[in-house]
Design a protein that fits this description.
227 residues, Arc Repressor Mutant, subunit A, globular, single chain, 10 helices, Four Helix Bundle (Hemerythrin (Met), subunit A)
Length: 227
């Protein structure tokens, strides 16, 4: 029985590893919209059979990052601004539940990590790939904030919706705008740390919701103006 449990655990860990790797590649545009993903090539790369690869691809399809076309292949979904702005709207409404459904207090470890991410925002301009680095920091900050969510179901929904919108930054953000967005993220983290350190959880939720609203507006403007 122990061996069976161990095998199941290893299989699940392998699935999560492959899933997170492919999701990251899509979010960071290593796989651009329209890219065809080959089950055979992925199975060879990750040294697994096609069965776990197929399972991962099915999950990515459910989450809106992949489209499986029967007889044609697996393709990274195109970016649809109207659809993603709707997702932003839903994310903003879900934030209202963060201080209602089993909220967690910010630990000292979390506050320290947020401060490290805050400082990293100031170093983006010197990074050889600033746009990619900004996208990575955006993910890290989000995952840090999610540690405040005690309701597992709410956290899972928020994460799924986040990854549907996260690739908008590397997709639409022009290189010359990265420094400005990094400063805005730096300011958001600074205010979040101040509120969380003083246990102002409802105020943090309001701050986060405002951040999402402004971010969606800026992304929509980038798409409209082509900046």
């Amino acid at each position: 029985m122990t061996e069976i449990m161990s095998t199941i655990s290893e299989a699940e860990q392998r699935f999560q590893w492959i899933y997170q790797a492919l999701r990251s590649r899509i979010v960071l545009l290593d796989y651009e919209p329209g890219t065809r993903l080959s089950e055979e090539q992925l199975a060879e790369e990750f040294k697994v059979s096609r069965t776990p690869i197929r399972r991962v691809l099915n999950r990515l399809e459910v989450e809106g990052l992949l489209e499986i076309r029967r007889g044609a292949g697996n393709f990274v979904t195109e970016v649809s601004m109207p659809e993603l702005l709707e997702v932003f709207e839903l994310r903003m409404e879900l934030v209202r539940l963060m201080d209602v459904l089993a909220p967690k207090a910010a630990t000292q470890d979390l506050l320290k990590r947020l401060q490290v991410l805050q400082n990293a925002c100031l170093e983006i301009a010197d990074d050889p790939k600033p746009k990619r680095r900004f996208a990575e920091l955006n993910v890290e900050v989000f995952l840090s904030f999610m540690e405040l969510v005690g309701n597992q179901a709410l956290r899972e929904v928020q994460e799924q919706l986040f990854y549907r919108t996260a690739r908008m930054w590397p997709y639409l953000l022009a290189e010359e705008q990265v420094a400005h967005e990094a400063k805005l993220l730096h300011a958001e983290i600074s205010e979040a740390v101040r509120l969380l350190a003083n246990n102002h959880y409802p105020s943090f939720g309001h701050l986060y919701r405002c951040h999402l609203a402004m971010a969606s507006q800026r992304l929509a403007m980038m798409q409209t103006t082509g900046v």
